[in-house]
Amino acid sequence: MSRYGGKPIVVGTRxxxxxxxxxxxxxxxxxxxxxxxxxxxGDGYSSSFSFYLDGPAGQNMTCEKTTSTVSTCxxxxxxxxxxxxxxxxxxxxxxxxxxxxDGGRYLLNSKYPEYADLPGTSVPVLKQTTLTVKAxxxxxxxxxxxxxxxxxxxxxxxxxxxxxxxxxxxxxxxKQPVKLQFKSWS
Length: 186
Description:
Largest sheet: 6 strands, mixed
Helix content: under 10%
Oligomer: single chain
Structural class: mainly beta
Strand content: over 45%
Distance between the termini: 54 Å
Mean pLDDT: 79
């Protein structure tokens, strides 16, 4: 059983995103000697991207025995927009592998079934979309017409915008329905 915080993973154009992970491993061997975990984004085949959790190989999660047969392990995956591609806006899932004290090997793949209320059966990875709007005329007269113009943008992870590879571009997101709410000030 694995767990992510229950919210979609939202990645923009510049900032890294830390994804906390908790996994419970069933073992009756007395504990875990090595653990390597990867956060996968994609379908698991041709359009997938994998990120090892932060930390040294073989010990990238911290494990603690919580019962005689279960260890709870925690770790963090760090996602960078420049390591993603536009096709990466897919569900994320966790793969954990390693060895127990008795030498037995384990492999756990999780599709986050406990979050079935979210879109799909995994935790979704979403692009951080921005909306800029302008209202005219100013001031607005009571009973008058207000005209709203704006632009909806989303990350283009395939296009770097600086020579250091630390930020990606945004592109327009045309013909998308947008609902705006207004509040009048008296």
